[in-house]
Specification:
Blueprint: E1 3-9, E2 13-20, E3 25-32, H1 38-52, E4 61-67, H2 70-77, E5 83-88, H3 94-97, E6 122-125, E7 128-129, E8 135-137, H4 141-153, E9 158-162, H5 171-183, E10 188-191, H6 192-195, H7 201-231, E11 239-241, E12 247-249, H8 250-253, H9 263-278, E13 284-289, E14 294-300, E15 303-304, E16 306-312, E17 315-322, E18 324-327, E19 333-337, E20 343-349, H10 367-373, E21 381-382, E22 387-388, H11 391-405, H12 409-431, E23 443-447, H13 451-462, E24 466-469, H14 476-480, E25 486-497, H15 504-524, E26 531-541, E27 548-552, H16 560-578, E28 587-598, E29 619-628, E30 632-640, E31 649-651, E32 654-658, E33 661-665, E34 670-673, E35 679-682
Parallel strand pairs: 1-4, 4-11, 5-6, 5-9, 9-10, 13-23, 30-32
Antiparallel strand pairs: 1-2, 2-3, 7-8, 11-12, 13-14, 14-15, 14-18, 16-17, 19-20, 21-22, 24-35, 25-28, 26-27, 26-28, 29-30, 31-34, 32-33, 34-35
Helix pairs in contact: 2-7, 4-5, 10-11, 10-12, 11-12, 12-13
Length: 688
């Protein structure tokens, strides 16, 4: 029995969790991130965490999982490697043409995102596969060799290959890969038939180019971190989380790094879903607010919602991922005044360095500074006293904005909170209202270092009446790494008329994908009893351009009755999302998906707190807190979360502090501690 360690790297803090399998104890630790080299904070944090659990050696770690933002940050900062593209003749400019839509329909001057591959590094070659998979033009091998040599001489370090119908017939792309291996073996190669074997050539092209652009950076980072951990004595294979919420070995992630775009926030959603399902809250909306951004996601019946892709910085990325929407609203988000003299917050962030003004280095006002000035956060220190801060520095920074608006420090701080709350509410509406779900039917589950601090205000903004705060919200994503399974996805585009009376063609494709999943299980060494497959069909009415994902309940062969039920689910989903259904119209399947899930050992969160306690036992101080202009500063009790036991009840206004976060109860809120030591808050009135 040893230690299971999860490490989540954020823009401001790196969070670490260790589960002691023998003692059944959970240990958490936070350390400032090191954006110039994220691995430095990871290695230092692991060393400090092991010291906290009794000076254990790293060889005692039996499981190591990591959530990283390296791929995402590489894209956002444009710091990938010089990349070349080889594509079908006539499609050189597709990367620039895109879908022909303006980035902003109300701004005719808005520019599209700059292509990751400049036109001078895009090459066309003779080859053509028809829509049915037959070959119209054979690949010109000699031309490919010349093209690869040209790209090598041009200084590229990665090559993306994307042919028009390679998802139906990958032979030509595979031949190109072989030629690159012969002519330019040091190049990082991405094939669209491997990265994304689906139709829609623009999205597939954008995704494979993205994969090539970030690939060497992610490869170098993960391989270096793997070596550093091994040199320090780690004996197990380290794993990294994917956008789909599952983990895979570093070596597999290095081949398809585009699947790590949502590596950081995905496991927080997975962990929150499991914790809340055990606590009796299967319908939740997660709200992960860190130092740089807020990530929100909707969970139905205890299962996170999934999507086939997203758009990041104006570029589409297709990969199986949890349906998470991100907005630039975190504790480090900077408050500023726009050209119309209006207060704005974010998306620019002070990050870990220089950080909010209260850290003593930065000068610009942030959301954290607003909370410090209002005393919602402890005005003297953070992290249970481990991190001293300066309230005066926060007030001075806030004055730079408030003076221009004619507001005092507290009015400015309240204004910042109102603006950032509105930004976060818009993000939640994207994953709820715009998907056909009413947020008032869900419980809000805040985590991240700043989530519980803002949850009550956000719930009021959305009309939500229930908040569930997990036991370790500030390290929820790191904890989620210890609660997720090993998983990967297999997909195939094959447009099929949906005919319930003829299940054979549908079963044939699903069986082929299931076979690929079984081969992956064998390579992973998953025990038969730990294997599970999730099957999904993406369906549409014939003539439509977009599909809806419909889950299949059974892993067995589908018969006519089962397909009729699938058809009913599709009509119901179409009614929910678009407001109508057309049961008489023909339906077709576009893409088949199978997700292979290998169950892993995990942290036991099912245990209940045997002790019964009262809120008085956890009362440690009182603090004057500025709640609103009419109320001004109000004397409020401050509770220590570590001392709150099952059964304790408390009412707002109040503050609940713990090492990794602070929870604020506004007037009218009533909180109780459940058997799993979650804070269950019934939201009060609509005013502050």
């Amino acid at each position: 029995m040893g230690l299971r360690v999860g490490v989540d790297t954020g823009g401001t803090f790196t969070d670490l969790c260790a589960w002691d399998e023998e003692a059944g104890a959970l240990h958490i630790h936070k350390i400032s991130s090191t954006p110039d080299d994220p691995s430095r904070a990871i290695l230092d944090g692991v060393e400090q965490l092991l010291h906290k659990v009794g000076g254990r050696p790293i060889s005692d770690v039996t499981y190591f999982a990591h959530g990283t933002t390296v791929g995402t940050n590489t894209l956002l900062t444009g710091t990938g490697v010089p990349t070349g593209l080889i594509t079908t003749r006539g499609f050189r400019d597709l990367l620039e043409l895109g879908r022909g839509r303006r980035p902003d329909m109300y701004d005719p001057q808005a520019d599209k995102a700059t292509p990751l591959v400049p036109r001078s590094l895009r090459r066309e070659v003779h080859e053509r596969v028809r829509f049915d998979g037959s070959v119209a033009v054979q690949l010109d091998v000699d031309e490919v060799r010349r093209t690869v040599r040209e790209l090598k001489d041009a200084g590229v370090r990665a090559i993306a290959v994307c042919f028009l119908y390679s998802y139906l017939r990958p032979d030509h792309e595979q031949e190109v890969a072989q030629i690159i291996a012969e002519e330019f073996p040091e190049a990082y190669v991405s094939l669209s038939s491997v990265v994304l074997p689906e139709f829609r050539e623009y999205e597939r092209l954008s995704t494979v180019v993205t994969n090539a652009f970030v690939g060497p950076v992610v490869d170098r980072y993960l391989s270096r971190l793997r070596d550093q951990l091994a040199n320090r004595g780690l004996l197990v294979v380290p794993r990294v989380t994917q956008s789909n919420g599952g983990v895979i070995p570093f070596s597999m992630a290095e081949r398809i790094p585009v699947r790590l775009v949502l590596s950081g926030p995905s496991t927080g959603v997975v962990g929150a879903a499991e914790i809340c399902l055990l606590a009796g809250h299967p319908e939740i909306i997660t709200f992960d607010m860190g130092g740089t951004s807020s990530d929100v996601s909707l969970v139905r019946h205890g299962e996170p919602q999934v999507t086939a892709g997203m758009e990041l910085d104006g570029r589409p990325i297709r990969a199986p991922m949890l349906d998470i929407h991100t907005v630039g609203a975190g504790g480090g988000s900077i408050a500023w005044i726009d050209s119309g003299e209006h207060l704005r917050v974010g998306p620019q962030s002070a990050g870990a360095h220089p950080g909010p003004a209260c850290y003593g280095i930065g000068l610009e006002p942030t959301v954290t500074d607003a909370n410090v000035a209002l005393h919602l956060l402890n005005p003297e220190y953070l992290l249970n006293g481990e991190m001293p801060i300066s309230e005066e520095a926060s007030k001075k920074a806030l004055s730079t904005v408030g003076d221009r608006l004619g507001l005092d420090v507290q009015q400015t701080a309240l204004g910042i909170l109102r603006v950032v709350t509105a930004n976060m509410a818009r993000a939640i509406r994207v994953v709820s209202v715009q998907r056909g779900y009413d947020p008032r039917d869900y419980a809000l589950v805040p985590f991240g270092g700043a989530g519980p601090l803002h949850a009550s205000r956000l719930a009021r903004e959305l009309g939500m009446t229930r908040i569930v705060v997990p036991l370790t919200p500030g390290a929820q994503s790191a904890l989620g790494l210890l609660m997720t399974d090993v998983r990967t996805d297999f997909m195939r585009t094959q447009i099929t008329t949906f005919d319930p009376s003829d299940p054979a063609p549908i079963n044939a494709v699903l069986q082929a994908l299931s076979g690929e999943a079984d081969a992956w299980f064998d390579a992973e060494g998953s025990a038969p009893e730990d294997r599970h497959q999730v099957r999904r069909l993406e369906m549409r009415y014939r003539g439509q351009n977009f599909e809806l994902p419909i889950d299949l309940d059974s892993a067995q062969q589908l018969d006519a009755a089962a397909l009729e039920e699938v058809l009913d689910h599709f009509h119901a989903a179409h009614e929910r999302v678009y407001g109508y259904a057309s049961p008489g119209d023909p339906v077709e399947i576009v893409t088949y998906r199978v997700q292979a899930v290998g169950r892993a050992d995990r942290v036991d969160v099912s245990r209940k707190d045997p002790e019964i306690g009262s809120a008085d036992e956890a009362l440690v101080a009182h603090r004057d807190i500025y709640l609103s202009e009419p109320r001004g500063f109000v004397r409020c009790p401050v509770y220590d979360r570590a001392l709150l036991r099952h059964g304790a009840e408390l009412a707002g206004p109040a503050v609940i502090e713990q090492m990794d976060t602070t929870t604020v109860l506004l007037p009218g809120d009533n909180c109780r501690v459940d058997a799993h030591r979650n804070l269950v808050i019934d939201v009060g009135g609509t005013d502050e």
